[in-house]
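Forgive a beginner's question, but would it be possible to get any protein sequence you like and the tokens describing how it folds?
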Amino acid sequence: MIAAKRAASAAILRNHEKIIDISHRIHAEPELGHEEHRASALLTEELHGAGLEVHLGVCELATAFTATIGSGDLHVALCAEYDALPGIGHACGHNMIAAAAVGAAIALAPIADDLRLRVTVIGTPAEEVLERGGKVLLLERGAFDGVHAAMMIHPAPFELATPALIAATKFQVEFQGRASHASAAPELGVNAADAAVISQVALGLLRQQLPGEARVHGIFDTAGLAPNVIPAAAHGSYMVRVPAFEDLKQLKDRVMNCFRAGALASGCELRLSGGDKAYRDVIHDPGLAAQYQQNAEQLGRNFRTEREAETFTASTDMGNVSALIPSIHPFVRVCAWPTANHQPEFTAACVTQEADDTVLDAAMALAGTVIDLAHDEARRQSLIAHASAQPAVSARVREAAGAFS
């Protein structure tokens, strides 16, 4: 095991310029979810060059891919994300996630067969989209079938092995009213902007009764076009988050009632859509998380818990993977609080020297965790036996379809 880890670390160090270049190139050309054509092409090219068997456009998703090496009986997936956010680019550091996954694959490729491993990098687009999150669609369509464990890292202001990643759903709100002259004939109009305002007031009042960990947030991107015309239409996107997936539907229904109130009070028609592709809360596998932390600490990473980290919650489609496959999704620190994800300052932090060092450490820690798992004979056999005793992941997803709507 020590020899394998030394070989993995040496491979990452030999290829460190290539790994960092991947991070920087993706960061320099941010692409939105399901539009990450340059990023997926770059990643598959580098993985092919490292000897992996690459398939781009898997599961009818143009920017999704798989890249596999090894023929062992234990199958481990390394998840890569590479989509950006509108307006602020890679403010969640997905450039680093992709680079770390490739780095870990480069480290494991020469030793995969010796470790009786099959390693697959799964390129998962559109994590930020939520309504069409890549992992949710890939799970449904079979990309994770046969995988025994799944791993990835995520940049953050904190180093955490098991961060709180809660359930979330997103839906669209459309109010349809009737336009009219705002001065000459306002009584003939039905104001869709009023419906939006009433809804947001109702949401503000609802928040008093919400659990402390719950989150409701969103935007109205359209609510009229001219101040002298009664707005005929308003459109918004809203998200609901709670710690446990089982509680998500109840809160979503209460939130939707706020929009129904806006429609009723204003006289508008209401259309609610989406919300059926929810993200589950992440279930961190305790054994894999402990192995990851040990590997990261040996590289000098500091997992001291900071007070702000206790309330730092987010959501990810990796939660859906973790509900079906033993998984980890640790945070890796790239900057100091109060700089945080989805801020322009975080975008800049994800291509600093600290970020580059973090990418290499994360790749080594992921590779080390896979090596530990490969040498843990009892755990590997348990994972293989557990997966063999159940239907394929995609079949289990289909069985559960309709449970949340």
